[in-house]
Description:
- With 318 residues, the chain is of the alpha+beta class.
- The protein is built from seven helices and 13 strands.
- Strands 4-7-2-1-9-12 form a six-stranded mixed β-sheet. It has a four-stranded antiparallel β-sheet with strand order 8-13-10-11, with no helix packed on it. A three-stranded antiparallel β-sheet has the order 3-6-5, with no helix packed on it.
Amino acid sequence: MSAGSNGLAREISALHRGRGLRDPRLSDRVGPTIRAALHVDDAAPDFEVRDRVVAALRSAARTLPGDIQRAFLLASALESDRPTLAERLDEAAAALDRDPRTVRRRLAQADSAVALVLERGARQQPAMEDAWYIESMSSHVDISGDEARTRATKVIVPTQGGLRRISERISLPNAPRDLAPQHHPRIAITAGGHLAQVRHQGSVWSYDIDLDNPLAVGIQQEIITQIDLPLRSMLAPVLIMVPIRPCRHFDLTIEFGTPANAESVWLVDGEYPTALADEPNADTLVEIPASGSLTARFSGLRAGLAYGLRWQWRHGDL
């Protein structure tokens, strides 16, 4: 473990004491390393600190193997209302059919694992918007033919309860202003909710998603969106994400076909969107695999900066 994750693990361990995450004065006990990892401002009100910490720890705990996940959820009081850590550890020992010493070891492993999850993607960035953040987003884009199809899987983590609707948008700068309705993007929500409304202004399509159920703080929600473009030419030779709220992980896969319909591809990793009008830096050139399928992965995205891939079409291909 790094020094940062060691510090996080110690502070997480301290939060288990007493009433754990049910402590009404929880915000007073949240250490500086956790605050930094979660981008919690020192001036944030108590309820915001509490919601942010509970959301992040509950979400991170869901990534753990069964036994250490159970130990963490019980010890932290996320799934127990017993007033002392000792009582919650006894509850965990009974639930896992292990002796208390073994449970304490499991809890220490869980604290370290949760710390590593929080440390990933914890670059400094502007303050987190309320309501929810993006734990991960994975986009698969097929532009190997005349049409284009995108499939995006987004995992969001609410920091406030009761969320019922979210809004998204896509920008297609090459879409003509007089685009016929039959050539508009076809947007479908295939998991997590259903499409509520689509709005079109210029080259931007905005759409609302009504979620299947109101969300609870820290409970991850997966939303899968499919967007089909009847004309690949609507795409500029660049596919990027510019987060307006924190996004911890982003994967982008583009299918260029075989042979690839792009001559050159460059990585866009934390650039100002306006810089995309400039010539790409030679150091960011990436090789297109023989399969024509290229994947780029990013962590700790900063709000307002661009992440993804840009390319030059093969001569005569578009």
